[in-house]
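Consider the tokenized backbone below.
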């Protein structure tokens, strides 16, 4: 094998700007601190625009890295529902979504179900901002 491995060129799928609407704290468990973080916000730019809302089932590990486990729903600007599943990490305010899975039965958006999608963003006092990229 020669050359560098590559997954190709990534394009912007959408930018999420949102806010946390509720936090349910379960305290320190045997495997780390657990909380559910509910969120909602807008998606714009790229190929998908609309609103996304959901919940992140967070586990804060002893090394202070948070494991993210998101279930959410997107309602696009043209009123199509897309199911969202995200696994990733949060550390020092930086979000790394290593696995983003979108699902829909709608023909217009069905192409997203077979794409490699990753996200990167931040969380701070002003809220969440995450850019999602896909391999076309």
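A designed sequence for it:
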């Amino acid at each position: 094998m020669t050359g560098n491995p590559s997954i190709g060129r990534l394009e912007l799928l959408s930018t999420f700007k949102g806010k946390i609407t509720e936090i349910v704290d379960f305290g320190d468990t045997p495997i780390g601190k657990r909380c559910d973080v509910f969120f909602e916000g807008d998606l714009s730019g790229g190929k998908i625009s609309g609103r996304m809302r959901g919940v992140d089932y967070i586990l804060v590990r002893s090394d202070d890295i948070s494991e993210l486990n998101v279930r959410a729903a997107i309602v696009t600007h043209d009123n199509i529902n897309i199911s969202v599943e995200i696994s990733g990490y949060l550390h020092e305010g930086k979000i790394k979504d290593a696995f983003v899975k979108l699902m829909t039965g709608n023909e217009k958006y069905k192409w997203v179900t077979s794409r490699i999608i990753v996200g990167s963003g931040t969380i701070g006092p002003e809220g969440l901002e995450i850019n999602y990229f896909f391999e076309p």
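The CA atoms of residues 23 and 37 lie 5 Å apart.
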